[in-house]
Specification:
Blueprint (H helix, E strand, L loop, with lengths): L1 H8 L9 H20 L6 H10 L30 E5 L2 E4 L15
Antiparallel strand pairs: 1-2
């Protein structure tokens, strides 16, 4: 997996099982994608903001689709999907489910 190889290149293989590290990795890859989409020489805060707001996924190492503002009480929640894994040790995870969504009619309570 490229994630594991990247961590190994950085001498940080021990971080492979840290869920926050893979989240950050995915965010960096998504940010790089947006910069490439705009054009590195043309990136401005306004152009980057426009590109990231139009981005609907899939997010690298994340949700297959994004929809910011779906829940009015949670405007920054852009994803209501998850999948579950079982850690089997030594950096190995077994996927237990595909992408799951909340039940029909679900709205978060604030």
């Amino acid at each position: 997996m490229p994630f594991n190889r990247g961590l190994a290149l950085l001498g940080q293989s021990k971080l492979a099982s840290d869920a926050w590290v893979i989240v950050a990795w995915g965010q960096v890859l998504t940010t790089a994608k947006m910069i490439n989409q705009v054009g590195a020489a043309k990136v401005t805060p306004a152009r980057f903001t426009k590109a990231i707001r139009a981005f609907k996924g899939p997010q690298a190492l994340g949700a297959p689709s994004l929809q910011c503002g779906k829940y009015p009480t949670e405007p920054a929640a852009c994803n209501d999907q998850t999948q579950f894994f079982q850690y089997e040790g030594k950096g190995v995870f077994k996927r237990l489910t595909g992408w799951l969504r909340p039940p029909a009619g679900f709205t978060p309570s604030g």
